[in-house]
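Lab channel / #folding
Pinned by the channel admin:
"Please post every new chain as: sequence first, then the structure tokens as a reply. Keep commentary short and put observations after the output so the thread stays searchable."

First post following the new format, from NK:
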Amino acid sequence: MDLFEGYVGIKIGDDQLVDDVLFSLLFGLLVLFALVFRSNYRLFAKMVRDVFFVKERLSLFDTVAGNEFVFKNFMTIQALFLCSLFAFSIGEQYEGLYLPDIKLNLFSIAVLFILILLFYFFKQLIYYMFGNIFAGADKYRFWRTNYDAITGFWGILLYFPVFWTILVGIYIEISVILFVFLYILYRFFVIYKTIRIFNVKRSGFLYIFLYLCGQEILPLIFIYKGMIYLYNIIEKSALWH
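Reply from TO:
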């Protein structure tokens, strides 16, 4: 005699599990941003002014203490983390990277975030060397203030393509085009600020040339090669299938 065991239900699809993980992380990040913005709205206003104006004054982020330190670092980490969420969601949409449990999803996003963070630190090291050799510490600190402001503002704009990819889930090409457009706009503002700040001295032109070659071209080639290498590993690993 068969015993009735009740309705076991229908297993949640792998794609729905991935979407739930991405939405939870995005919602948590947005809550943190709201808290940081609420307690540092004056720093946020100064950050926006630093994006659109070039005015030599005391740096917004020179004092490594209190809310200024938290605000600067959170805005940078927010931008990098949104990049990792976007990259993972695009992989889920285009390549079907449906991982069987939450831990694997979180681990994969963490790996992407660490890789992007290491790439960011690599660029900051080159920035530091070039800035102090060809421009001096004061000019470099002033440029770094503007760079941090642009990065933080770019991170806020990244919510739009990430929200589109995770919540809308259709016409993904729109979110990809928007992400690429925002990245190009971000680099344009960085290059514009670099020219405005370092074109005073004769050595500034050499710095700009080295900056364009070493910071805007070679790193993109490195990350492109790294993404191809990582994609080949994912394709050959049974863990992702």
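NK: Residues 14-50+57-240 form one domain.
TO: also worth noting, Residues 9-13, 58-65 have pLDDT under 50 and may be disordered.
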